[in-house]
## 1
Amino acid sequence: MKLSDIVKELSLEIKTYKDGLQNNVTGAYVSDLLSDVMANSKEGNIWITLQTHMNIVAVASLKGIKGIVIVSNRQIPEETLKKAEDEKITITTTSMPAFEIAGKIYLLLK
Amino acid sequence: MPLNIDGTIDGTFQLIGGNFTTAGEASTQLKLKLSELGVDETIIRRATIATFEAEMNVIIYAAAGWLHYYITSRSITIKIADMGPGIENIELAMQEGYSTAPDWVREMGWGAGMGLPNMKKNSDLFKIDSVVGEGTTVEMVINFP
Amino acid sequence: MTLSKITEILEATVIVRPADLEDLNIRSACSADLMSDVLYYHSIDSLLITGLTQINVIRTAEIAGTKAIVFVLNKKPDERTVELAGQKKIPLLSTPFCMYTASGKLYQAGLRSSLND
């Protein structure tokens, strides 16, 4: 499924790198721990997290993650947004908490 | 409803920086105390969440600190003073998501930049003072309904 | 949703099951590794799905009013954590699924998010 379809279906707000919406999403990963995402996420995953620290962009970039969903309406620091734009990572946000958005994406990708 | 308490009930806990194993003990003991006194569940939760976040801040950032609580018939006051690095920019530190925690703290599930906002959210009165190189003092009051 | 139903859906191993506790009714779930998140969006009678197993997860649960905890990716806590959970009467489960799949399966079965109260 295209990232743009997920964004549309779940009314996610796009914060960075709109061009990335054409990317294909093959699965998802939920975690707030960078080491866990480094160890266990897969290329093509969409990453659901509450973590907004700048380092999420580096992790996404290293792991081939094209899209990040920041949950629970959290504000994203300017430096994170800038880095995501530079590294071509699409960051989106939602007011839903992680459990809820994970559940909805699970049903979409099933 | 004011509680049936004469005067003030108070207590103190000493907090040791870096000790993640016992982190949270002061807050859970305070929770027990408030339950014994018959304080409303919602108030207990707000008071202990605010206290726990403050306690974790001392554990994460400071060498040591003290937690004092004062319970009267109308409110609970929690004061936490630490011997820590102090906060350079309090306004920034109060912003949700802002954190100076090192990566290893984040990997333990803390340092998400929600501690101070969470304390403020759960308190009726929230005061913070900090001197860089000396330490930080937080005072929180939660009124009983 | 009952805790035994959750255990079944998640194909979970029971690590702590307080003996005198009847089957819990779980009203909502929260998937998180950041403990302030659990404390910020706390809700009563909820299930915490997390990848962290250290002892302060139990204290967070106790303070936030979390009813039970599921550790993902087959993670198991150490003895002190298990002991504290037993004392506090907080059931602990361990599921082979990751947080995404565990959340997805429970959501599909009808469990919903904790609401900020």
Note: Chain A has one domain: 3-109.
## 2
Amino acid sequence: MSHAHRPRAIDGQAPDVFSRDDTVPMRQFADTDEVDFAIVGTGCGGGVLAAKLAEAGFSVVAFDAGAFWRPLSDFASDEREQEKLYWLDPRISDGADPLEFGSNNSGRSVGGSSVHFQMVALRFRPEWFAARSRLGYAIDWPVDWREMWRYYDEVERACAISGPLTYPWGPDRGRYPYRAHEVNAAGQVLARGAEALGVDWAPTPLATVSAPRGKSPPCVYRGMCKIGCSTNAKQSVLVTYIPRALDAGAEIRDLAMVTRIATDRQGRATGVEYHRDGQSRFQKARNVVCAGYSIETPRLLLNSANARQPTGLANSSDTVGRYLMVHLNDAIWSVMDDEIRWYKGPPSMACCEHWNYIDDHPDKDFDGGYAFMSQGPLPTDYARTLVTNSGVFGHELRRKMALYNRMAGLKMVGETMPCADNRVTLAEETDAFGVPRAHVTYAHDDNDRRMRRHARAFMAQMLEAAGGRDLLETSSTAHLMGGCRMGADPETSVTDSDGRTWDVPNLWVCDGSLMPTGGGVNPSMTIMANAARIADRIKTLCASGTSERAHG
Amino acid sequence: MSPRFHAPYPGWDILDKWESPSFNDITRAVLRRRLTEVHARRFFTPAEWLAVQALCDVVMPQNDNPRPVPLADWIDAALHEGRSSGTRHADMPSPRDAWRQGIAALEAEAQARGADGFANLERDAQNAMLRDVDDGKVSTEHWHGLPPQRFFRNLVLAEIVAVYYAHPTGQSEIGYGGPASPRGYVRMQPNRADSWEAPPGDWPDEDTP
């Protein structure tokens, strides 16, 4: 594989992500400079935070274990090569329903998982921010939905989301910044089925531009969003917030693996230990932010245990690593009479949030909600789904795969309940840096099983209504949420509503691990909106002198 | 028995677009390596190698391919290089140990069925044996600590299809468009294809409405 083996953001220069081989100037800090913020992770949480804090004048160094890619020259049209975008270091997967990591939910690049996400840009339903008090399940967020919705506006503008003029579900959200894309044949199957059943559907709001934007050309519908966009039409964090962060004077350290947060005798964070280019180093910082997502953030906090906090940093509540959530990602696939050629266009161009916005219905026998979208998996992705779910092999496998161009699919994004026993701990075995590997335990509950049954039946009905036959059901999960949840109660959460850990005043979390509930939509917009909100909260706290910052 | 494989897109070869705007430099470089760099066996032992090759043949029969994809060689290379998927199931050994144990278990299972090894079973018996492994119907102690279905589906099948359908041969036979950068696609409607996509498929009777 053509890996970036050596760091590229060095000597006062960072890769220009809009070029094939150029650089842009980058401010650099010494390890001995006590920077205002050391941010661990540069995805939907850390990338957004780094940009907004640097723009507010703070000194920022953001670390990422992954490479700093230039999509135009680094991204091939090839699934196997592009595995370089994923976190492939093994996690130990345990429990009654063990999770799949890697390409399924874990990025390892500057820009994080947004470099390989499928760009589905949906908002939480307002009531989900008060799931316990409004809907009677799980737990409330410590944030009001109107505040979160204002930040959805902000990040949707920052990512120039292409979406429909009117969206069928939830409160009026105004117009999306860019017009909706033409819905491909795979999406038209969902549309036809929804109309036959009398339920709403929508062109999916997507983070890929439908018209030129700055140095981003409009999407050319090559369909390889999940393995990295090689044209920069995709509005990932790598091509939106990272350039902003660099412009504002943040330093990005690529291929820099943070292994431990150091603390002083008072228990305050003093900086981060990290490995880069074969060296072990230490960056001093006034504040440390964990933004490594739901596995690496808990892993880092647990591995940073000290004499005062022997069970892990910020873990007096024993909540670090707990309440890990995924989305149910079951799908129905069917053979169509038409050639669909679902490899063209973004994979999920039509969506249905019908069951996210229904509470009282005789058929609804579960808490939470689910959305589902049309599908367009690339060949090896679809083949893996087929064989791991059905065990098919031989001529029958080749025959089923030969129907690739005639297939359509509907796949759910279903909310699972936060459960204390679904968690990240440290394994005995260590990685190349001597850090214990993550050990992840996961089991579904009865609510998950009821929702999965309901969604499978509904999606099957819709596909049949659209003319699908020879239905195949598959089971999987997607996305990660929780693991260091924020909350109103220090006994049951890791951080307050600002992402500041209850135990260590200059240690923060800013990524998907903060999410107290998972909702029934893809999480990236929610993670970004929450990060944008936390950035503004930090600015406010610093202005009022209740948080650390540099002077002068 | 399953029907014999019928290729719906005869003559379609994504490599014919090599010099077209559907290919860029990095994709050409990656595919050039995939087509030319086939390493000699480095991970499996000679005895294991026979069984692995037979296993690939049964899972992905390629007797109709003029140039079969060297599946076993790519699996060997991935294991030699320590390529990882990001997930290690707690009930499974590491990929290398799992493959060694799994191949030994398949050999023992074939011997329990009266053959010298998996490669020496008749094709029907090989098919039947793999279906039994997938169903967990195994008879030897060699599977201890290695769940047969997880080994078969998540390692054997998943790895074989990951190699086959990442190869231009596998991609062409299913009518996939192949590399698409910088040029993508224009015609997004059902039954419509750009001139740089496969022409409409030729479907066998059982798949035709």
Note: Chain A has one domain: 13-88+104-543.
